[in-house]
Structures are given as C-alpha cells and as structure tokens.
Specification:
Blueprint: H1 2-10, H2 17-23, H3 27-57, H4 60-79, H5 83-101, H6 104-115, H7 119-122
Helix pairs in contact: 1-5, 3-4, 3-6, 4-5, 5-6
Length: 126
C-alpha cells in the first residue's frame, strides 16, 4: 500500500470524474462509502467468487484471474485507466493476501486503508 501512497505523492493522480464525484459527496456519506466498499467489495470480489470459481474450475489461479478482471473493470470505468497505475499494485497485493491467508477481515482493513486517503481532498487539505 506504500507504493500507492508514494506514487500519488511523486506523481499526483490527475483529477477525473470519478474522484470528483467522490470528493463532492458530503463527508458522512463518503466515510460510510469508504467503510461499505471495503466490506462489500472484499466479499463480492474476493471472498465469495474466488472460492466458488475455484470449486467450479478446480483452478485457484483462474478463479483469482476472473475475480481480478471483474474487480478492475468497474474501477477503470469509474476512475479511468490511470487507476491501475495508482491502485493496481495494491489490488494485486490484496489478492495475494487473500489467497495466502484467506483472511477476509485483513483484506477489508487493507481495502479501507487504501480508500481512506480520498478523505484528504474531500476535507480540503489538498
């Protein structure tokens, strides 16, 4: 996750419609969104699909790949292709954490920590 922070400091992400939409939300709504996305995305994109797809295909790597593609598509649509530069490595690391430990709670916490910095511009600190 340090990479995401470092790259955003060295090469700040250009404004895009997705980030603007989030930053313009009322702070309580944004905080609720950060919490709920960390929880629901981990369940819907990692915990459930990886296990079910692994059962169906018999291949863990294929289950992870399908889940990964399904996860990044809406993020790229909402935030733009440059999202991969800023969050791609972090996303891969969350997948590795899940496959390695199968600890969805740790993935939720990590996801929350990755999403929380959107509060910085939302609170007017940038």
């Amino acid at each position: 996750m340090s990479f995401s922070w470092l790259i955003s400091i060295i090469l700040p992400q250009p404004p895009n419609e997705g980030i603007t939409t989030l930053v313009d939300l009322p702070i309580p709504v944004l905080i609720l969104l950060i919490f709920t996305t960390a929880i629901t995305e981990e369940i819907l994109y990692r915990g459930y699909p990886i296990e079910r797809l692994r059962e169906l295909t018999g291949k863990k790597w294929l289950a992870v790949l399908i889940s990964f593609v399904v996860f990044i598509l809406p993020h790229i649509t909402f935030f733009g292709l440059e999202w991969l530069l800023y969050q791609g490595i972090g996303t891969v690391l969350i997948y590795i954490l899940y496959v390695w430990r199968k600890n969805l709670w740790a993935c939720m916490l990590l996801h929350f920590l990755v999403n929380a910095p959107i509060l910085i511009p939302a609170l007017g600190f940038v």
